[in-house]
Amino acid sequence: MGTVIFGYMRFSYLGRSDARMSRTGDDPEARMQALYAPERMEERFHFFEHLCAPSLRWQSDKDFRFAIFTSPELPDPYKQRLQAIVADIPQVEIVYDTAEHITYAIHPWIERQAIVHKARTLHFRLDDDDVLASDSIAMLRANMDQVPDRGIISRPSGLFLMDSAEGPELLAKFEPFIAIGFALVNPPGVIHNPYALRHQMHFRSAPALILPGEFAYIHTAHLQSDTLAAQRAKLAKARAEHARYYGNRPRRFRLAVRRQFGGHHPEHFMKIVESSPGQRRKAEAAARAAAAASGPANENAPA
């Protein structure tokens, strides 16, 4: 019959979307300069290459298609880098579009897929710095027939990878209708994508299937996250949640992470945060400040 599961990502898309940066300011030139600032792009590429892209490769069910939407204005070196990262992921297609809103780019792409006019299809979303568990596509396929037309599938159990003041933390979290892996099931002929709605509110008007259990995602908050301030506000809640369910079960937590995320232990993901360009810049700045502070003291010290 053909592939019936489709995923979507915006990668530094210049048009509007629900990303906070895309909603700020009406000057396209200023928005483009902010969006493609080298520091921001280096950080986004670091997490896309080391977190997000591997999670597409390690899917146990490989019968899906995944469209990455970006803009023609993306500087050529970044286009080449993006293409190189996904070159070995056959499910991925990079789409360059000039639509003023991400929904207007995704909608015609879906419409061009012949299968959506013949069969029920499932459509999910993923951000470029987040991670899907290895069973994500398999779980969506196994449950899409349990959902009525236009219904939602949400897997609320996951992990919070946070770049906190105390250093990187990987914590268990539970968030129904989180954007990561948020999925819609469309009947034949219906064009509806998960960026065309408010994922945290859509359950008020559509039936939903909640699938708790195994960790289904890693939600990353780093120095170039569009929602960093909001995520930092959630840190205390995540720490309490983690302590309640895994505080005295560290081995159980490690095994659950390894089982769901490519065989990797928690330290693997925390090292990715530690090695990010933003963290390296922070360390270099701290070293310079320490050297400057100690300089005069050393000069005035008795011989």
Structure description:
- The chain is of the alpha/beta class and 303 residues long.
- It has a single domain (5-280), classed as Spore Coat Polysaccharide Biosynthesis Protein SpsA, Chain A (Alpha-Beta Complex).
- Helices cover 39% and strands 18% of the residues.
- The chain contains 10 helices and 11 strands.
- The strands form 2 sheets. Strands 3-2-1-4-9-6-10 form a 7-stranded mixed beta sheet, sandwiched between helices. Strands 5-11-7-8 form a 4-stranded mixed beta sheet.
- A hairpin with a 2-residue loop joins strand 7 (157-164) and strand 8.
- Helix 2 (38-57) packs parallel to helix 3.
- The longest helix has 24 residues, at 277-300.
- The relative contact order is 0.15.
- The model has no long low-confidence stretch (mean pLDDT 90).
